[in-house]
Amino acid sequence: MTDASPPHPVIILVEPQLAENIGMTARAMGNFGLDALRIVAPKGGWPMKGVRETASNATHVLDGARIFATVAEALGDLHYVLATTARERGQMKRVFGPDEGMAEAAGRLSAGERVGILFGRERVGLSNDEVSLADAIVTFPVDPDHASLNLAQSVLLVAYEWRRAAGRAVLPFLGAMRTGPAPREALISLFESLEADLDAAGYYPPSKRDGMIRNMRDMFHRMAMTEQDVRSFRGALRALTRRPPEE
Amino acid sequence: MTDASPPHPVIILVEPQLAENIGMTARAMGNFGLDALRIVAPKGGWPMKGVRETASNATHVLDGARIFATVAEALGDLHYVLATTARERGQMKRVFGPDEGMAEAAGRLSAGERVGILFGRERVGLSNDEVSLADAIVTFPVDPDHASLNLAQSVLLVAYEWRRAAGRAVLPFLGAMRTGPAPREALISLFESLEADLDAAGYYPPSKRDGMIRNMRDMFHRMAMTEQDVRSFRGALRALTRRPPEE
C-alpha cells in the first residue's frame, strides 16, 4: 500500500486449497487496487507451488501476503470484520450485499478503522464459529439455483464494490469524440446536397417526396454526426455522384 | 431460458483458448441468472475437453452453447451489441462502465430487443474490426497498473451488473432477528438489575457511579438487544450472582 493510496480493506482467505484460486484472488485484488492479503493455514503450506501462474501481474499481492495459523490471529489488529457467506447461519448480524458492505467498509476505513473481509474455504466456506468473529455478513445476490460463487470471483465482486464505494471507480477511457458535434448549418447543408443529388437521380416519387425527406433527415439526426462525420459523408456522396471520366 | 425469466443478454466469447475460462464463464453466468452463451471459433473445437470441470453446476449453459465460425454470424440476429474492451480503440462509440452498460441493455431487453455482449480472446481481446461491429463499448473501472481482468472475471462483473440492472439482485437471506427488539421497559429493568448487582458487589466508586452507569447503558444501547438477548443476559447475570451452595 503506497502512502498516496487511501486505506484499503484486508482480504483474508481461510484455508484456501487451490493455488490457482489464491493467484486469481491476487489478480482480482490488483484489478481493483487492493493489495493487503492474509491467508489462514493455507493447505499445502506457503509459499504454495503454482500460485503465481494465475496472478497475472499482481504478484506483489502474493509477495506481501501474511500467513496466520488461526482466524482469530489473522483478525487480531482489525477494528471491523465482515464475513462473506452464501447461506443463512441463523446468526443475528447485519447482512449486506457487496455494495452496502463496501460502503460501510469505506466509511470506517476513512474514519481510520482497519477493516478486513473474511472468505471461507472453497467447498465449505466459513464455520459458524468463524462467522461469529465478524461484525456483519456480506452475501451475494446470486441465482438461488446456481449460488456457488468461486472464491476468487467473490473476492472480485468485493474488490470491485470497494473501488466504487471508495469513489475510485474511474473508467480507463471515455468515449470522447475526436471532433465536436457538427453545427446545425453543416447538417442542413449536407441534407440539401443529398436531397438535390437524389432529386437529380429520380429517387423520390413526387407524392412521397416530403415524407421521405423527413424520414431520412431523422435517420441522420439519430447518428449525432460530428464535424468530421459530415465531411466524410460529403466526400462519399461526391464520390458516388461524380460523372465517370469521358472515354 | 425459461418462459418465466425476463429476457437475458447473450454472452459471446470470441476465440476463447482455455477450457477452464469457458467453464468459469458458464459458472459466472449461472451465478447471476444468465444462460445464453455463444462461442466464436473456440480454439481446439467444441465440445472442448475440460470445460465442464470448472463450470460448477452451470453445465446447462455449456450444453446450450451455440458455436459460430465468425463474429458477424454470432451477432446476426441481435439488435444491440456491446463490446467489452480494456483499452481505447479510437472508435467513436459510447463508452459505458458495466453498470451503465447493463442499465442500457436491461432497458433494451425489456423493450423486446435482443442484446449481446462480446468478450475477446484471453491475451489480445477483440480486434478493432470486431469492436467496430458493436453499438457501444463496456470497459471496467480497474486500477490502470493492473488492468488485465481474467475473461471469466469480466463476464462475472457484467452478469452481476445485469442482475442488478434487471432489478433481480435479491440477497439470498436477510439479517432478520429471530425475536423483535426488546421493549424499553425490559432494557431498563435489565439495567436496574445489573446496577443493583454491581452496587452490591462494590463495583462503583461513589464519585464516579452516575457517569459509569450512563456509559454502560450506552454500551448496552449500542447492542440493539432483542427480547431474547435481554433474557439471555439476565440469565447470565443470575448465574454470575448466584451464591455458591453452602457446604
What would you say about this model in short?
The structure is a homodimer of 247-residue chains. Chain A is α/β, with parallel strands linked by helices and 247 residues long.
How would you portray this structure in words?
- The structure is a homodimer.
- Chain A has two domains: about 10-165, 3-Layer(aba) Sandwich (Alpha/beta knot), CATH 3.40.1280; about 185-240, no CATH class.
- In chain A, about 40% of the residues lie in helices and about 10% in strands.
- Chain A has nine helices and seven strands.
- Chain A has helices at about 20-30, 60-65, 70-75, 100-110, 130, 150-165, 185-200, 210-225, 225-240, and strands at about 10-15, 35-40, 65-70, 80-85, 95, 115-120, 135-140.
- The first copy, chain A, has a seven-stranded parallel beta sheet with strand order 3-2-1-6-4-7-5.
- In chain A, strand 1 (about 10-15), helix 1 and strand 2 (about 35-40) form a beta-alpha-beta unit.
- At the A-B interface, helix 1 and helix 6 of A face helix 1 and helix 6 of B.
- Chains A, B: InterPro entries: Alpha/beta_knot_MTases (IPR029028), RNA_MeTrfase_TrmJ/LasT (IPR004384), SpoU_MeTrfase (IPR001537), tRNA_m1G_MTases_N (IPR029026).
- Chains A, B: Keywords: Methyltransferase, S-adenosyl-L-methionine, Transferase.
